[in-house]
Design brief:
heterodimer, A: mainly beta, four-stranded antiparallel β-sheet, about 0% helix, globular, B: six-stranded mixed β-sheet
Amino acid sequence: GAGVSQSPSNKVTEKGKDVELRCDPISGHTALYWYRQSLGQGLEFLIYFQGNSAPDKSGLPSDRFSAERTGGSVSTLTIQRTQQEDSAVYLCASSPRGGGNQPQHFGDGTRLSIL
Amino acid sequence: AQSVTQPDIHITVSEGASLELRCNYSYGATPYLFWYVQSPGQGLQLLLKYFSGDTLVQGIKGFEAEFKRSQSSFNLRKPSVHWSDAAEYFCAVGLYSSASKIIFGSGTRLSIRP
């Protein structure tokens, strides 16, 4: 596909379960970002991958959150022992290169609901 | 630290009326500036960007934005809104550095009155 693809589009799970969210960036894009958007709120930065550099994890809210990017392409965001406050839309974005001058291309997000 | 402020949380305008959404940034140098739009249930789409040069930039869907250095502002405008413009609008700033991230404002929700 031509755009950023995220799966699943919706996820409902029980409190305490672990969840994995997937992001397929645009082919050739070296930079990948994860954001969280709570209901009616702006974007909260979570983590940033740029090429082979160590990821910027400064936005991860707790050690229950982690992310990987395998082979410089697909990324997985994992939330362990989910809590109700984790309910949100998780957005992934990619850009051709890293840096603040690079427009980001967004997926449609994964809507996560914790019961 | 750089920051971006969108002072209006929610704006309602009549269809066909003009629109201006405000954005102010805080940084010592001129950052790169962006406006994105988010329709319900979708990700963000880039409307326009400013890097340098002409301070009035044109974007998609008939939007434009004007960079004013003296006011540290980058307001988004449209001469005549359509019902399909109802969405959330985000202003964003970035710095030139491979380690730099884009910082997003909190967004302005636009509603269109028939």
